[in-house]
Design goal:
heterodimer, A: about 280 residues, alpha/beta, Rossmann fold, eight-stranded mixed sheet, 12 helices, B: about 260 residues
Chain lengths: ~280, ~260
């Protein structure tokens, strides 16, 4: 990793160089926002300082998924345009004090965001946080270009569907070689995979060929937790929550074993057994 | 001037089922005897071709039509199952700014002269690709799922469609009646209350959709599928029939729904 030389900070606080990770997919609705919220919550629960940045100007949702929509006062564009300071705009999470949200503007357009200014903003956040997670909008238009600009790592979220894999493959190409890119396979239904009715994780990765960061099974508790604004990653009893906590550990580097790919029956039995 | 209806299928949020709905509704309308043209407006991230299983037959695309590199009819792919269904694919290696709103509207108008229904599959988001997709439309179907985030995005999109004066109707997709009953999912009534748009259809979650979509065979053409009947009703409502909303697999759900509404 190349560490950029910078002028020493004048304050007594040592300068951080946090990691900026964009969560992207190409296709919409595969779980980018849910993944951002849960991975962020799981990272922050370990004590790391984490900020989540909603880059979906005009169609923001990260605030809802985190249950913070009523606390948003200022947004990214307010900060970029000088109408608010970063401190004004950062919303502290209700459950995890080390977690912050920087909301997107809802009544503006992606074209209103200058890519270079957004990159600089991510740079400033990296000086204050250990992890900057950027929730990318669907598609590969201006909003995508803005979201990836300041990130030197990317997490591709992909569901086991031909269309999602095709879009993800296109996005991997657009991310270029200078970024580290890893994969989360989301909404896997092992029972369907076994019946040959759904692509397996191997099928997905035969095309994408990315290091696997995690596999999230399709579970109703994700919909419930998303609608309630309570990240499932903070639910100690949830198997899906455990998968997100493992993803956080793999990002930090404290877990080096690859994700267990749930194909076999015993996993399902375990899953339903543990639900009781 | 043609009398063809030009309908954009849009949502704001991605992954709620725009492309699947476009393919299935198009297939059902064609099966009912209408001449139907489907347009994939998702330049750079096309998928309608996959869902219809025509991806290997693409020779020309929307952008090439606009740039005059081919005739419109050369770019149209005729479905092998339904002879009055055709698709105009999007370009995959270009971006949404490759065409303008006016160019898109012209293509849709040309298609409208050849058929009865033009269905336009809109990309996710509200950027350039969205503005293109709605440019040639005379009406809109907003597809949403019963999730807070999808509804918020749909609300934003309906606002933009209203600004354009486009009539809007709503399809609630991937409903899980058992989760609505347990209070873990918004009901159709909740959704229509928030969005205050006319309801066109309710489609239950069905895991078969994943498989048929991957295989490029629209579920609406599977004779034994319960979704085929549901898409058929949506098509009849589009034609102007008054088709009642029947119960899904959850007795009592709609009783409660309409009981509260009346």
């Amino acid at each position: 990793m190349i560490q950029r030389e910078e002028a020493p900070a004048s304050s007594a606080v040592p300068r951080r160089r946090g990691r900026a990770i964009v969560i992207t997919s190409g296709k919409g609705g595969v779980g980018k926002t849910t993944t951002t919220a849960n991975t962020g919550a799981a990272l922050a629960a370990t004590g790391a300082k984490v900020v989540l940045v909603d880059a979906d100007v005009g169609l923001r949702n990260l605030d809802i998924v985190m249950g913070l929509e009523a606390r948003v006062r200022y947004h990214v564009l307010d900060v970029l345009e000088g109408a608010a300071t970063l401190d004004d705009a950062l919303v502290t999470d209700k459950r995890v004090p080390a977690l912050r949200l920087l909301a997107a503007a809802q009544t503006r357009e992606k074209d209103d965001v200058d890519t270079n200014a957004f990159r600089d903003l991510i740079g400033s956040l990296r000086e204050r946080f250990d992890y900057v997670l950027i929730d990318c909008p669907a598609g590969i238009e201006k909003g995508f270009a803005n979201a990836i600009a300041g990130a030197d790592e990317a997490i591709i979220v992909c569901t086991p569907e031909v269309s999602a894999v095709r879009d993800a493959d296109r996005v991997v190409g657009l991310l270029g070689d200078e970024r580290s890119v890893k994969l989360i396979v989301n909404r896997l239904r092992p029972a369907l995979v076994r019946r040959g009715k759904m692509l397996s994780v191997d099928d997905v990765n035969a095309i994408l060929r990315l290091p696997l960061l995690g596999v999230i099974t399709d579970a109703p508790d994700v919909i419930i937790s998303t609608n309630r604004g309570e990240p499932v990653a903070l639910d100690a009893a949830s198997p899906v929550g455990a998968s997100y906590r493992e993803i956080a550990q793999r990002i930090i580097g404290t877990l080096t074993t690859p994700p267990v790919v749930p194909h076999d029956k015993s996993f399902i039995e375990k899953l339903f057994g543990s639900r009781k | 001037m043609s009398a063809a209806r030009r309908i954009v299928l849009t949502s704001g949020k991605g992954g709620v089922g725009k492309t699947t709905t476009t393919a299935n509704l198009g297939a059902v309308l064609a099966k009912r005897g209408h001449r139907v043209m489907l347009v994939d407006a998702d330049i750079g991230l096309r998928n309608l071709d996959l869902v219809l299983g025509v991806e290997k037959r693409i020779v020309f695309d929307l952008v090439e039509v606009v740039e005059g590199r081919c005739q419109l009819r050369q770019a149209l792919i005729k479905d092998k199952r339904l002879e009055n269904l055709s698709i105009l694919p999007a370009a995959q290696t270009r971006d949404k700014t490759a065409i303008s709103e006016l160019q898109m509207a012209n293509v849709v108008q040309q298609l409208a002269e050849l058929c009865d229904y033009v269905l336009i599959d809109c990309p996710a988001g509200i950027e350039h690709g969205f503005r293109n997709a709605i440019a040639g439309a005379s009406e809109a179907i907003v597809v949403t799922t019963p999730e807070v985030s999808a509804i918020r995005d749909a609300d934003r999109v309906i606002g933009k469609l209203n600004e354009r004066g486009l009539p809007v109707r709503l399809i609630v997709n991937r409903l899980r009646p058992e989760m609505v009953r347990s209070g873990d999912m918004l009901s159709v009534e909740d959704v229509t209350d928030i969005l205050s748009a006319e309801l066109l259809g309710i489609i239950p979650e069905d895991e078969e959709v994943i498989d048929t979509t991957n295989k490029g065979e629209p579920i609406a053409l599977q004779p034994d599928s319960r979704l085929a009947a549901i898409y058929d009703k949506i098509a009849r409502r589009l034609e102007g029939d008054l088709v009642p909303f029947t119960t899904l697999r959850a007795p009592g759900f709609f009783g409660r729904l309409f009981g509260k509404a009346s």
